[in-house]
Fold this sequence. Notes:
The complex is a heterodimer. Chain A has strands at residues 5-7, 10-13, 19-24, 31-38, 42-50, 53-57, 64-68, 74-78, 87-96, 104-108, 112-116. By secondary structure, chain A is mainly beta. In chain A, strand 9 (87-96) and strand 10 (104-108) form a beta hairpin. Chain B is 0% helix and 52% strand. In chain B, the strands form two sheets. In chain B, strands 2, 4, 5, 9, 10 and 11 form a six-stranded mixed β-sheet that branches. A five-stranded antiparallel β-sheet of chain B has the order 1-3-8-7-6, with no helix packed on it. In chain B, a hairpin with an 8-residue loop joins strand 9 (85-92) and strand 10 (101-103).
Amino acid sequence: xxxxxxxxxxxxxxxxxxxxxxxxxxxxxxxxxxxxxxxxxxxxxxxxxxxxxxxxxxxxxxxxxxxxxxxxxxxxxxxxxxxxxxxxxxxxxxxxxxxxxxxxxxxxxxxxxxxxx
Amino acid sequence: xxxxxxxxxxxxxxxxxxxxxxxxxxxxxxxxxxxxxxxxxxxxxxxxxxxxxxxxxxxxxxxxxxxxxxxxxxxxxxxxxxxxxxxxxxxxxxxxxxxxxxxxxxxxxxxxx
Lengths: 117, 113
């Protein structure tokens, strides 16, 4: 089974521009989450989508948005880029494990490295 | 944003030594997870713990879910060079939080021959 794929892998933008990142989850996974990873703040949750609906949102400004399509693929958009938006953006797809102690096991993609100049 | 307190921040050890790292939180989690991240890659799940007090092993890895549900530790026995990487703890689950993971600050592990 193919893993989570993210495109592009690397991106360079300038301040004020906007960017769209794409994530294709593992086949059969319906939940997609996005995380931002920076040296200063570590891994921070952005948002989660399930069946085309945003199910949970982290503490990020409105410049960060996302969506999910009917095939579970997801995109995230950052508008009016700032220098501090430079980060590794990780996408994770998940399914819920079975059993009494079920939880949402998440599988991460390799990330998109965004550099804002 | 919230980050779990993870220690140590970095470790330099010799091949064959055992490693221990831990993670604490001010919040309760229903599930504790340990991930490893290699350069240029996303985190990979090592161990998942979903019962307070639970001790779980995966090969040379052993992890425990604290009885208060606010802490966890990870042990790696007989370290080898491929253990090099950054290890993250993560807490999951709470009212209305669905899949959201709250990550620790990370432990960078270096193994020397």
